[in-house]
Task: inverse folding
């Protein structure tokens, strides 16, 4: 693969929120996961574990989690914090912008809590993707293994793009780890990291037109020893 092809696979990745029903063959899914498992991990621990779901099995999980979401039970909380208790700059502005950009494409006005909730609920249908994945990690592992896990997940999203597929990584699933645990038989020693939708993007869906902004390297890195 050329540098251009690699860059294109990375830069064309979007958090797709509307998928076509086109099936993804199991050999393609396994190939993506196999190559993604080449991600580096400290002392080659390979901390990733998970579940791949399609058809009735996927629908059963979605039904169970959507039912829990609809009950709005406050007992459903993530086991590991993903966001800070209070957002601050520049992260607060970035979070707000991506949220309002998304709602704008969907025609959801500020303050329309019902439509916002309905859109959030679509996470738990994997945005109608034909493939849903749930990822877990042994709870005894430490921060380094979580960093390694991020590289594995990024590999999946890049490998999918290289094959013309699209994804959406979904931290939202971790909130319903109890339902996931009982439905999929996830052992207590594993923490739900996230979910991920996989399939072919519906290019006609307005929600998939969103392009998020990224800061340039010079804005977040300091360069030393280079000529002016």
Result:
């Amino acid at each position: 693969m050329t540098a251009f092809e690699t860059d294109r696979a990375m830069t064309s990745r979007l958090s797709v929120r509307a998928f076509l029903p086109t099936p993804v063959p199991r050999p393609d899914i396994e190939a993506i996961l196999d190559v993604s498992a080449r991600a580096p991990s400290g002392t080659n621990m390979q901390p990733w574990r998970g579940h791949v779901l399609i058809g009735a099995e996927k629908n059963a999980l979605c039904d169970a989690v959507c039912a829990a979401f609809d009950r709005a039970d406050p007992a459903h909380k993530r086991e590991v914090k993903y966001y800070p208790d209070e957002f601050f700059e520049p992260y607060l502005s970035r979070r707000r912008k991506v949220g309002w950009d998304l709602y704008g494409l969907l025609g959801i006005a500020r303050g329309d809590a019902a439509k916002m909730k309905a859109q959030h609920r679509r996470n738990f249908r994997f945005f109608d993707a034909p493939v849903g994945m749930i990822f877990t990690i042994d709870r005894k592992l430490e921060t380094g293994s979580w960093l390694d896990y991020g590289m594995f997940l990024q590999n999946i999203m890049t490998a999918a793009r290289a094959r013309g597929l699209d994804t959406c990584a979904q931290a939202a699933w971790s909130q319903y780890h109890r339902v996931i645990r009982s439905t999929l038989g996830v052992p207590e020693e594993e923490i739900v990291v996230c979910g991920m939708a996989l399939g072919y993007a519906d290019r006609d869906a307005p929600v998939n037109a969103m392009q998020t902004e990224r800061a340039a390297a010079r804005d977040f890195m300091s360069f030393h020893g280079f000529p002016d």
Q: What stands out?
A: The two ends are 33 Å apart (CA to CA). Helices lie at 3-11, 26-36, 55-71, 91-106, 113-121, 143-162, 177-184, 217-220. The longest strand covers residues 190-199.
